[in-house]
């Protein structure tokens, strides 16, 4: 009995919706704090943070939990919508729904679907580029070269406090540059690039240099793009508006679903939930707006 | 006097011969309806008119006509029990409508409430949920103890009484966009969960009632709160939360 009771029953579906939803609320807070560095910090700190987030094992576990939560939340939502539609095979000719419930509470499935579309777009724009894009730029620094001229170098993260490495005009380790270094070092190295940013010696597998991906640059570029920057900013703000409505119902609803209610607690949860639903999406939305309109 | 004492109205009423055939909304005109009459009295007046025209009268549920039996249903102008709160349809008065209004009258819509005829639906799904656990077992061997000998905290007694005010009319299911019966079941579970007499069977009760509710084909609750607004007895959402707690406790046992 207990097995299906905690998986399939109508109340179990509430629990899962609530628990995954609340976990995703925590994720939002973490994500927001990271994003706010785009306004309150600089490129270096933001990129260091991005590197930490893509390499730290604890973060990896959290990120898998987040993916699972999103999938579970969405699948549960689809199940609910299908079953709830089936619970009323013949509809009413006239429904005055606004007399008894809020707009957000009646449209959680639509809002949720829009958020899912946003998440996929968002991950294609940043997450996929960070992980798979061969043209992902590397953090670049201009230094004075040996002959007094300027040299483009990548900012690395390994081997030395100033692990610079030459890069080409596209911000990548060009084949020509690798050949040059090979020649200069008189055959000591047979250099190659792996994982887009790592230069290693093919002879013994030794890692010579790890370049740092420039997430800051692609973020700024997206929202400052001459052609699409305005559209990207507008759509981002719109998505946050959708998120706000979803949270407006979802946050307090999760506590009701878990049975966490009381005369003292419920008003606090509702007030906090409303503040959360407005503040978190608003701060998220402020970032691309700041980048597009105010960042020099 | 500002408002007219008698009004003329247009009705769009769901007519359906039985559960096996398709139904449809049929238009009726009804003149000289007193604004002091109840909605059910207005339907009586319509039926008299239909009978005198040798037409089949509209079938609708009604019994006590004083808001306590839970028989009368009707989805009126898009709302369960019509455009007022805290009332059943027999307590809805025609003064809520204006001269010339068009009024939609539809049956409760739910897979678990099949239509018997016209506006009459079969609400025995509620009875089966109740039979699954909505009771306490009492020794009736002749040495029955008076219920009042067991002390009950006043607050709990009040809350149990408020939950027990549910008349099982089905407005919660009818108004819920998901066709969920959780307010009804929540009230029935709470009524016993709050009292010492109900503790004995608390675990099986909530499990069995929820299982029966799911089997009957009601939808899932998404906390829109529409049920609470339309409930004629003001049953609070708190009862659903209490059921959620009871269910979690029971399913972890």
Automatic annotation (TrEMBL), chain A:
CC annotations in GO: membrane
InterPro entries: Cytochrome_b-558, SQR/QFR_C/D
Transmembrane segments: 15-40, 61-82, 108-128, 228-248, 268-295
Domain of life: Bacteria
Alphabetical UniProt keywords: Membrane, Transmembrane, Transmembrane helix
Name recorded for this polypeptide: Succinate dehydrogenase / fumarate reductase cytochrome b subunit
Record CDD domains: SQR_TypeB_2_TM (cd03498)
Automatic annotation (TrEMBL), chain B:
Cofactor(s) annotated in UniProt: [2Fe-2S] cluster; [3Fe-4S] cluster
Biological process, per Gene Ontology: aerobic respiration; respiratory electron transport chain
Any GO molecular function: electron transfer activity
Residues annotated as domain 4Fe-4S ferredoxin-type: 157-187
A matching Pfam family: Fer4_8
Database matches in NCBIfam families: PRK07570.1
Similarity comment: family membership: Belongs to the succinate dehydrogenase/fumarate reductase iron-sulfur protein family.
UniProt protein name: Succinate dehydrogenase / fumarate reductase iron-sulfur subunit
């Amino acid at each position: 009995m207990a097995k299906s009771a905690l998986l399939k029953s109508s109340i179990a579906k509430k629990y899962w919706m609530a628990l995954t939803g609340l976990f995703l609320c925590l994720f939002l807070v973490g994500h927001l704090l990271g994003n706010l560095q785009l306004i309150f910090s600089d490129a270096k700190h933001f990129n260091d943070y991005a590197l930490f987030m893509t390499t730290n094992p604890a973060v990896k576990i959290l990120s898998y939990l987040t993916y699972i939560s999103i999938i579970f939340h969405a699948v549960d939502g689809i199940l609910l919508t299908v079953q709830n539609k089936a619970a009323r095979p013949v509809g009413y000719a006239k429904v005055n729904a606004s007399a008894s419930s809020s707009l957000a509470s009646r449209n959680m499935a639509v809002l949720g679907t829009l958020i899912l579309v946003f998440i996929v777009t968002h991950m294609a724009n940043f997450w996929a580029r960070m992980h798979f894009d061969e043209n992902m730029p590397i953090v670049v620094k201009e230094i004075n070269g040996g002959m007094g001229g300027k040299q483009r170098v990548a900012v690395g993260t390994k081997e030395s406090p100033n692990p610079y490495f030459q890069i080409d005009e596209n911000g990548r380790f060009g084949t020509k540059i690798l050949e040059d270094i090979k020649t200069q070092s008189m055959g000591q190295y047979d250099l190659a690039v792996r994982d887009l940013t790592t230069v290693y010696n093919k002879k013994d597998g030794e890692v010579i240099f790890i370049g740092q991906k420039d997430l800051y640059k692609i973020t700024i570029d997206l929202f400052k793009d001459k052609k699409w920057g305005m559209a990207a900013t507008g759509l981002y703000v719109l998505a946050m508006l959708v998120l706000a409505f979803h949270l407006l119902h979802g946050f307090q609803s999760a506590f009701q679903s878990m049975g966490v209610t009381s005369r003292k607690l419920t008003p606090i949860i509702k007030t906090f939930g409303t503040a959360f639903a407005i503040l978190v999406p608003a701060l998220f939305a402020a970032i691309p707006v700041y980048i597009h309109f105010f960042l020099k | 006097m500002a408002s007219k004492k008698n009004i003329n109205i247009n009705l769009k009423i769901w007519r359906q011969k039985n559960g096996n055939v398709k139904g449809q909304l049929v238009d009726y005109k009804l003149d000289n309806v007193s604004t002091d009459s109840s909605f059910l009295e207005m339907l009586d007046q319509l039926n008299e008119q239909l009978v005198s025209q040798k037409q089949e009268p509209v079938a609708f549920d009604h019994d006590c006509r004083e808001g306590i039996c839970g028989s009368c249903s009707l989805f009126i102008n898009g709302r369960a029990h019509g455009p007022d709160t805290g009332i059943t349809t027999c307590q809805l008065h025609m003064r809520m409508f204006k001269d010339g209004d068009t009024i939609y009258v539809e049956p409760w819509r739910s897979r678990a409430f099949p239509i018997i005829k016209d506006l009459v639906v079969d609400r025995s799904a509620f009875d089966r949920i109740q039979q699954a656990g909505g009771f306490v077992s009492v020794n009736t061997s002749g040495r029955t103890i008076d219920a009042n000998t067991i002390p009950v905290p006043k607050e709990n007694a009040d809350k149990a009484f408020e939950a027990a005010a549910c008349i099982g009319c089905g407005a919660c299911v009818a108004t819920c966009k998901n066709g969920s019966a959780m307010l009804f079941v929540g009230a029935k579970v709470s009524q016993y969960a709050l009292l010492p007499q109900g503790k004995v069977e608390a675990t099986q009760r909530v499990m069995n009632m929820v299982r029966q509710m799911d089997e009957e084909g009601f939808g899932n609750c998404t906390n829109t709160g529409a049920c609470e607004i339309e409930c004629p007895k003001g049953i609070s959402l708190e009862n659903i939360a209490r059921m959620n707690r009871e269910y979690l406790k029971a399913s972890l046992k």
